[in-house]
Recover the amino acids of this structure.
């Protein structure tokens, strides 16, 4: 049986709360579909997954079909690259991972269905009642809890930070962090199911997880203590970071230090070498993905000689969209959306610890861990870099295709059957 802890709503039992919401969503969806059918309207967008059927064939096989043989460059080879370019534009695997997926059922939060019109007065009244409940009752309660949790975290970690280093300080620090993070999780009405807790990260290791939202940190930290890694900030966030590091050995980098890979690797290596320090929590994707996929893991944390503890996180989008599109929403706006949703429902799987095998480089190890997380969380395993969200394709990807094409030409010239 999975280890389940469900903070839930403060006034309603979690099970009744969730079942009631699902019944309401189901009824609202049936009303939508019936109304759309009566008006002869298309309710949902056409599915964008699998528009183009792609067979797993090699570059040489695909080029051979239009050209019909020959070992040298042929103008018809351009057709292959043109076709692949058009396919990538039509069925873009990257861009659609940074937009919220459309639900097949209406959760009374937003008009996520692009062609949704007024269906009935009852649905409108139900949606309005939901707005009153969420913004008039749940939101003030959740904001109060969030302010309380953050306030206690700052005050109590400051007090613990004054204590001399000892087992007592470490014990109090862990208890304070767990208590405060659990209060913050309750501020989101989080209903979390933890699986396979025997595999929870241990001291001297690195915990890596897929990244959907900033609240991923709260989800994991409310079930165990971690040392955080991140860039040092100014203002209120910087004040909180400085307070946290007094009681717990977090690792904050200055903006100029983040680009120094050797410095980052040394700081991480020194931390995991001390078995008395908490496991490090890292999200190797480097950006938030929309809860459907896992994208390329940066190799930095996999170059360190230590045990990796993979964790898969999967949110239930029916109760609220946990994905943070940082290009579209600021942090405050995103947190307002989360606190005004019905709940945050998710599952967390602790996978067996993994170590780098003999002859395996950091990139191969990262891909192996990523694949394990994708399989466990039911996510799509993609090779693309999440950094493409904000930047152009790196030249190295273009060079790889050029080298692959050159190898095909050379091999065909050396093969007498293709002469």
């Amino acid at each position: 049986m999975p280890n389940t802890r469900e903070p839930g709503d403060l006034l309603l039992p979690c099970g009744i709360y969730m079942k009631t919401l699902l019944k309401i969503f189901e009824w609202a969806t049936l009303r939508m579909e019936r109304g759309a059918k009566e008006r002869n309207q298309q309710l949902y967008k056409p599915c964008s997954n699998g528009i183009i059927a792609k067979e797993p064939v090699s570059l040489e096989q695909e080029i051979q079909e239009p050209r019909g043989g020959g070992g040298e460059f042929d103008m018809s080879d351009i057709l292959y690259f043109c076709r692949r370019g058009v396919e990538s534009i039509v069925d873009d695997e990257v861009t659609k991972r940074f937009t919220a997926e459309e639900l097949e059922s209406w959760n009374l939060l937003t008009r996520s269905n692009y062609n949704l019109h007024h269906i009935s007065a009852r649905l409108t009244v139900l949606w309005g009642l939901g707005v009153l409940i969420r913004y008039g009752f749940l939101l003030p309660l959740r904001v109060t809890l969030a302010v309380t949790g953050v306030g206690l975290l700052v005050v109590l970690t400051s007090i613990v930070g004054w204590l001399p280093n000892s087992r007592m300080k470490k014990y109090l620090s862990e208890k304070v962090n767990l208590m405060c993070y659990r209060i913050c999780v309750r501020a989101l009405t989080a209903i979390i199911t933890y699986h396979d807790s025997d595999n929870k990260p241990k001291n001297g290791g690195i915990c890596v997880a897929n990244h959907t939202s900033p609240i991923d940190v709260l989800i994991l930290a409310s079930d165990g203590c971690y040392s955080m890694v991140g860039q040092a900030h100014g203002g209120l966030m910087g004040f909180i970071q400085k307070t946290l590091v007094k009681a717990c050995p977090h690792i904050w980098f200055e903006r100029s230090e983040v680009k120094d890979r050797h410095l980052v690797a040394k700081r991480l290596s020194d931390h995991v070498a001390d078995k008395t320090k908490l496991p490090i929590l890292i999200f190797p994707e480097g950006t938030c993905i929309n809860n459907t996929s896992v994208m390329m893991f940066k190799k930095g944390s996999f170059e360190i000689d230590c045990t990796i503890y993979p964790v898969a996180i999967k949110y239930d989008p029916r109760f609220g969209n946990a994905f943070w599109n940082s290009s579209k929403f600021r942090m405050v706006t995103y947190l307002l959306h989360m606190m005004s949703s019905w709940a945050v429902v998710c599952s967390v799987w602790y996978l067996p610890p993994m170590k780098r095998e003999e002859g395996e480089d950091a990139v191969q190890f990262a891909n192996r861990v990523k694949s394990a997380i994708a399989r466990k969380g039911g996510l799509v395993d993609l090779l693309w870099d999440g950094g493409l969200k904000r930047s152009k394709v790196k030249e190295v990807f273009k060079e790889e295709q050029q080298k692959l094409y050159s190898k095909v030409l050379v091999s065909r010239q050396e093969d007498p059957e293709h002469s």
